[in-house]
Amino acid sequence: MTAGLATIPLAALQALLRQRGQPAWRAKQILDWRNKGVLDPAAMRNLPAALRAALPEWLRCDPFTCVARQQSVDGTRKYLLQLNSGNNAGKRIETVYIPERERGTVCISSQIGCPLDCPFCCTGSQPFDGNLTGDEIVAQLLHVMDDLRRHPLDNGASNRVTHVVFMGMGEPMSNERGLHAALKALLEALGISRRRITVSTSGLVHGIARLGKSYPVNLAISLHAASNPLRDRLVPINRTFDLTRLRASLDDFPLPAQRHITLEYVMLAGVNDRPEDIEALAAFVNRRRERVNLIRYNPHPASHFTGSSSAQIDAFAHQLTARGIRTTVRRSRGDDIMAACGQLNSVLESR
Ligand code: SAH
Ligand code: SF4
């Protein structure tokens, strides 16, 4: 059984049903449910009982069981999802929903843990335990949609998923097969605009080039330092793909008009927030095509860094802006439930 309900296109589902002696028009009914986030055939009320019972034998329906859901005081929800079948059966990942008034962003995981170990990142401290399939990546988003439909937020924030960011657990570019399969389904089967999808990477340049060719969605780079010695330490993949190679791959990445590549920069006190770091960053950034997003450091038990103070972050932002660099400061969301950037760790969570 290779196909999965989360990603299957209409024509493929029609063919599958026909092969099993079912009317092809049922495919549309099934995908109407899927597109609302429903992956459990038992809940598809307009299907005959026999078809509801048979579907999971023909097609992998829901790869996850939600084992815990936490909600932050700001409405952010974190889901601990356990794989119930496939090569990763029994393993757990985390997915986050970040509501705002006019938009709802799902932050999805691409791997179980992460093979790279950036020393300030909580996910990086968890042992790497496998890649997710495209179907398992997309199912995370569907789970969130279904949960919001059944248990809407009542604080005036959006209950509609409008944006998808690959900023959960894992390095998407070290699971390109899963990443590309997921993007294909998000864009084609689920009809999400490429302007609403962002892939974040620590800088695997070949993956960036292939993404630009196949699925030119929004790109975010975990930069965190703009000099090689410091970036070698903070983002170890820099020892393989240094800033010169990263620069070349960013310059080649296709960008539609009015769009920018985001350079993410986590603010670590005394480490990368010094005057020389501003100079290095100002020398690295391509002001026309890139903008800087300063991220407040989110502490977690596996790291010894201290975040820069709010005043320091503001001063840093101000100095970048004064040098003509578009700069924003990311508000931290969900940090009271360890759902903020770099805090996802399904092993700590399961203890
Ligand atoms: N592996 C990819 C996708 C993860 S995105 C990548 O690194 O880009 C998660 C983002 O949160 C990355 O920019 C990461 O560098 C950042 N991050 C990691 N640990 C953090 C922490 N403790 N506080 C704030 N941001 C962190
Ligand atoms: Fe992996 Fe990204 Fe964390 Fe680095 S920052 S360890 S690449 S998840």
Integer count of domains: 2
Q: H/E element string?
A: HHHEEEEHEHEHEHHEHEHEH
pLDDT averaged over residues: 94
* CATH architecture identity of the largest domain: Alpha-Beta Barrel
- Structural Rg: 21 Å
Number of separate strands: 10
* CATH homologous superfamily title of the largest domain: Aldolase class I
Counting DSSP H or I runs of 4 or more residues, the number of helices is 11
Helix percent reads 25-40%
Q: What name does the CATH topology of the largest domain carry?
A: TIM Barrel
- Content of β-strand: 15-25%
The hetero molecules present are:
S-adenosyl-L-homocysteine, iron/sulfur cluster
- Order of strands across the widest beta sheet? 1-2-3-4-5-6-7-8-9-10
Span of the ends, CA to CA: 33 Å
- Output the structural class: alpha/beta
Low-pLDDT segments: none
Query: What is the CATH domain class of the largest domain?
Result: Alpha Beta
Q: Biggest sheet: strands, sense, closure?
A: 10 strands, mixed
Instruction: Write down the overall geometry.
Output: globular
